Amino acid sequence: MNHSLDPLFLASLRYWTGMNLKRSNMNFEFTEEQIAVRDAARDFAQNVLKPTIIERDENQRFGEEEAKQMAELGFLGMMVDPKYGGGGMDTVSYVLAMEELSKVDASSSVLVSVNNSLVCWGIEEFASEEQKMKYLVPLAKGEKIGAFCLSEPEAGSDATSQTTTAIDKGDHYLLNGTKNWITNGGSASTYLVIAQTDKEKGHKGINVFIVEKGMEGFIVGAKENKLGIRGSDTHTLMFTDVKVPKENRIGEDGFGFKFAMKTLSGGRIGIAAQALGIASGAYELALAYSQERKAFGKEISKHQAIAFKLADMATEIEASRLLCLKAAVLKDRGQNYDLASSMAKVFSAETAMRTTIEAVQIHGGYGFVKEYHVERLMRDAKITQIYEGTSEIQRMVISRSILG
Ligand code: CAA
C-alpha cells in the first residue's frame, strides 16, 4: 500500500506529528528564552535544592525557604499571563524547568506543577475577572500556594463518584466532605475543591469552588507519611458546614467535572516532565558512577551488562522527552493535547520507574544508601505512576481515543 496517497493516513500522520507535511516546520531547537529558563532551573536545583533534599526527605520537611525562593524566581506562576502577575512563559519552558527541578527534587517540582497547572491554569482559563484578580494574582506571584482537591477516600480514579457535597443555600453553598492525599494540603492558602451539588445529574451535577484556608469548618487533617516525595506536604482535608460564597464557584453550574478533566490534561504534562526529570537525574548519576567505579579490572560502564542498561535508559529518556515536548507544543499552539499528555505521562512514568530501579542496580550497595540520591529518586518515581491519573487511567484515556 502506498501510504503517501492515502488521505486518511496523511490526516492521521498530520494529527500525530502536529506538522504541516508540505512545509515541514518541525524544529528541535529551543529559543534563547527557553534555554535561559532551563538553565535557571538547573542552577537553582543544583545549588539550592540539592544541598537540603536528603534532610528534607528524611524528616518529611516541606521546604518553606526553598518554596519562597522558587516564588521569587517566578517558577510558581511561570505560565500565567504577566497581567495577572505571572511569568508569561510557554509550556515548553515549563517542561524544561520541571525536568531540571525534578532531576534533583521531585518534592519541590510537584509544588511547581500543581500550582501552575492545576490551580493557576484552571483559574486563568475558566474563572471570572474578579476571581482572577482576587485569587490568581497572589498565586501567580507565589505569595500564596494553591491546592487541587479532587480525590476522596473512595473516589480516586473514578472521579465522578464524588461524595463531598455542596448544597445551594441561596447566597452560599454549604460544603461537607473529606478530601484525601492533597498535595500542598498544609502549605496552601487557596484550595480548588470539587464537590457534588446535584447527585441526580451525575458528572453534570459537579462544581468547583475556591475555598480559603481559615473558612469556618475547614480543617487541615493529618499529614501523610509517604514512600516518596516526602518533602512535599500531603494532607487529608475535612469540610464541615463550610459556607462558601456563591461567587467562589468557578464557571457555569455543573462545570466542575469538565473543569477537573481539562485541568488534569495540562497537569499531566507537568507530571510527565517530572517523571522525565526523575529518570534523567537517576540516569546522569548512574552514568557518572559507572565511569568511575571499577570491577574486574575496568570501569563498570565498559562491561556490556552495564553499557546496555545505560543505552536503554538513554533511549527511553529521549523518547519521554519528545512525548513531553510534543504535548507541550500542542498546548502552546492551542491544539488538543488530551491524548498527547496521557501518552507523555504513562510513558514517562513507566520510564522513571524502570530507570531509577536500574540506576540503583548500577550503584550496587551504594545505591541502597541515601547519600547517593538514587534510592530517593526510585521512591519518588512511584508516585508519577499514581497521581494525576494512574498509568491505568492514562491507558484508558489513550485506548478510548484510539477506539472511539
Ligand atoms: N476534557 C473535557 N471534558 C472531558 C475530558 C477532557 N479531558 N475527559 C472527559 N470529559 C468529559 C466527557 O466528555 C464527558 O462529558 P459529556 O457527558 O458531556 O460528554 C464527561 O467528562 C464524563 O466523561 P467520561 O464519561 O469519560 O467519564 P468517566 O467516569 O468514564 O471517567 C476518566 C473518565 C478519564 C477515567 C476520569 O474519571 C479520570 O481522569 N480519572 C482520574 C482522575 C485523576 O486523574 N485523579 C487525580 C487526582 S488529582 C491529583 O493527583 C493532584 C495532585 O495533588 C498531584
Keywords summarizing the entry:
404 residues; alpha+beta; 4-stranded antiparallel sheet; 11 helices; 52% helix; globular; disordered N terminus; binds acetoacetyl-coenzyme A
Structural description of this entry:
The chain has 404 residues and is of the alpha+beta class. It has 11 helices and 9 strands. A 4-stranded antiparallel sheet has the order 2-3-7-6, with helices on one face. Helix 4 runs antiparallel to helix 8, helix 8 runs antiparallel to helix 9 and helix 9 runs antiparallel to helix 11. The relative contact order is 0.11. The N terminus is likely disordered. The structure holds acetoacetyl-coenzyme A (CAA). Acetoacetyl-coenzyme A (CAA) binds next to helix 5, helix 7 and helix 11.
Short description:
The protein has 404 residues and is α+β, with helices and mostly antiparallel strands.
List how many beta strands DSSP finds: 9
Q: What's the helical proportion of residues? A: 40-55%
The average pLDDT value, as a whole number, equals 94
Q: Could you tell me which ligands this complex binds, including any ions or cofactors?
A: acetoacetyl-coenzyme A
Structural class: alpha+beta
- Overall body shape: globular
Spatial sequence of strands, sheet with the most strands? 2-3-7-6
Topology as a string of helices (H) and strands (E): HHHHHHEEEEEEEHEEHHHH
Low-confidence stretches: 1-21
Strand-residue proportion:
5-15%
Mind telling me the C-alpha Rg?
Answer: 22 Å
Give the count of helical stretches.
Answer: 11
Major beta sheet summary: 4 strands, antiparallel
Distance between the termini: 25 Å
